[in-house]
Here is the input.
Amino acid sequence: MLALQGAFREHVHALGRLGADAVEVRVPADLEGLDALVLPGGESTAMDLLLDSSGLRAPLADRIGAGLPVLGTCAGLILLATDLEDGVEGQRTFAALDVTALRNGYGRQVRSFEADLAVAGEEAPMRGVFIRAPRITRTGPDVEVLAELDGEPVCVRSGPIMAATFHPELTGDDRLHARFLAGLPA
Ligand code: GLN
Here is the structure.
């Protein structure tokens, strides 16, 4: 669990409810022995700076590039996107998920809202909490869309990467985390 900034505690609780042993990652040594990583929501520009000051950027980029499974939510999705629109100048990403993410894509008027989402493979709708969420304005050919809102992807998967523009850790509905954990290599 990347724990530099943002809503990481809620993810740790969700992972704990599912029996996963979540380790909070703040320095490079914390990466040892990780089987998977969660990148939380929060503020991607702050995380961008903290990735440098913590020394985590290069070792994390190496692990993600080597196929470490990653779940990214909201700002975490921004950190994974190959292309970023409306980032701050110089803002970088791990470029591991072939999508274009538009930061704060719902604008100032509708900054935060909730919606029921039909997620592929789930019978009951999932409540999506969107907080100054990014929009996914392009998906690459290898990106599978798991949920849409108004015809736009809000939850996607590509190889070992899963990402959502909303906050699944804030609702107590752990199905998305369970899906991510179920997809990890044994
Ligand atoms: N707007 C935030 C950003 O740019 C993301 C918001 C969130 O993670 N809830 O990082």
About this structure: The chain has five helices and ten strands. The first strand starts at residue 37 and ends at 39. The chain has a mean pLDDT of 97. The longest helix spans residues 8-17.
